[in-house]
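User: My instructor asked us to take a sequence, write out its structure as tokens, and then describe one feature of it. I'm not sure where to start. Here is the sequence I was given:
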Amino acid sequence: MIKNLEKIKNKEAGFTIVEVIIASFVFSLIAVGVSLIFISILQTERRAFAAQKIEENGQFVLEMMARDIRVSKIEGQDDPTCSLTSLSVIHPTKGTIQYFLDAGTGIVKKTEPFPGGTTVEISSSAVNFTRLNFCVRGSGTNDQKQAVVTVISSIRNRTGKEILQFNIQTAVSSRSVETELLN
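Assistant: Let's start with the prediction itself. The structure tokens for your sequence are:
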């Protein structure tokens, strides 16, 4: 009976070294897998936030330009090749407004005649505009056409491990009532 107790006692003494090593290895594999998934999710989230920042800034700049272009008169700037890097519009209340890209800083700027020819930055310093071109059709003084401006831009983030670039384009027609009444 004592020999039976010793056999039972030895069998219940614990895990063997091989069992401990295998269990540790399996646990390590699971822990590494979960960690890699978590890191991947964090990277995807950072990328999504960077993309959102770029898109929001681009939409803000294009919408600001579109508001002014819609109500303004555009004359003598026809360029179907999209090589214009600045656009001047004659706003009914603000006067002549000019949009352009400061290539040195990558920031889109707007110049208004009041007060005193002020130039303001309309894009955020968090993003870098690498391209801003304008295609203008129908801006001739006697062409009897409605002016249409296509704005083409490329925007990228300035910070982050991964640099993302978006190409955003919009077309805006000038609804200058003055030209409609004259014709």
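For the description part of your assignment, you could build on this observation: The chain has one domain: 30-182. Try explaining in your own words what that tells you about the chain.
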